[in-house]
Amino acid sequence: MSTQNNGGAALGVAVVTGASAGIGKEYADRLAKRGYDLILVARRKDRLEALSKELRNKYGVKAEVLVADLGNDTDLKRVGDTIAVNERITLLVNNAGSSALKPSINLPVDVVDNLMDVNAKSVTHLSLAVLPTFIKRNSGTLINIGSVLSFYATPISTSYSAAKAHVMLFTIGLRDELANTGVRVQLVLPASTGTDLWDLSGFGLKNLDPATVMTTEHCVDAALAGLDAGETVTLPSVEDASRWEVFDKARLAMFADSQTGKPASRYGLGG
């Protein structure tokens, strides 16, 4: 990807959701540094406006603010409609997230609904909003931020993990759908990252082993390095990249093995 800074003239516009803090804020900085103009999406207007001013002054790019709660259907539709008709958009980072880390029985249903809406529904809607233009132009980049909890659930992360599992399979499916086009799709699966999401989840960042927590800067820089290297699935903290390959092969093999109309012999049902 080009690192030239030309006010977004060549690179176009990058949309970053959840841009007011954490990983989203870091993506906004790094993409502005590369020369993208920006559309910054989040709930907190004051933080977005401060970030917009900072990036304009620092990199000479345009940085539009779009205040929205992506867990709200009306706001989600408004954002989707806005980016669907903007043909200058060449990159979308679906980063916005919500978390509540408690056993499922202790989570109110409306909290679970919000987890699903922000973490899964918004990713789906906004991806489908930009993809028609990307496909028509035969270029564009979609980056969806999942989690290592996309493929692992703890006793306090069941609903969050389920929402992130949607992000994983949805993004892999889109990648395969678009494999023969000029549209790039990347799934990013961070592990523990130093953002305020931990405190907002009710768990608290202080309860994590500091040795397991990656900075947002390292997380985003690794993810973008993975994108530059052509990765379609990036695990910023996993040293051995073949771990994903083994996991993916096992997933595909299990699906292939399931394609028979006969019960498995261990059930003793005969032919």
In a few lines, what is going on in this structure?
The chain has helices at 22-34, 45-59, 73-84, 109-137, 158-177, 197-200, 216-228, 242-257, and strands spanning 13-17, 37-42, 63-67, 89-94, 140-145, 183-188, 233-234. By secondary structure, the chain is an alpha/beta fold. It has a single domain, classed as Rossmann fold (3-Layer(aba) Sandwich).
Explain the layout of strands and helices.
Layout lengths: L12 E5 L4 H13 L2 E6 L2 H15 L3 E5 L5 H12 L4 E6 L14 H29 L2 E6 L12 H20 L5 E6 L8 H4 L15 H13 L4 E2 L7 H16 L14
Helix pairs in contact: 1-2, 1-7, 3-4, 4-5
Give an account of the 3D structure:
The protein is α/β, with parallel strands linked by helices. The protein has one domain: 3-Layer(aba) Sandwich (Rossmann fold). It is built from 8 helices and 7 strands. A 7-stranded parallel sheet has the order 3-2-1-4-5-6-7, with helices on both faces. Strand 5 (140-145), helix 5 and strand 6 (183-188) form a beta-alpha-beta unit. The relative contact order is 0.11.
Essential attributes:
7 strands; disordered N terminus; globular; seven-stranded parallel beta sheet; alpha/beta; Rossmann fold; 8 helices; about 270 residues
> Which sequence of SSEs, written as H and E, runs from N to C?
EHEHEHEHEHEHHEH
- What is the beta-strand fraction? 5-15%
Any idea what the CATH architecture is? 3-Layer(aba) Sandwich
Count of discrete structural domains: 1
Mean pLDDT, as a whole number? 91
**Spatial strand arrangement across the major sheet:** 3-2-1-4-5-6-7
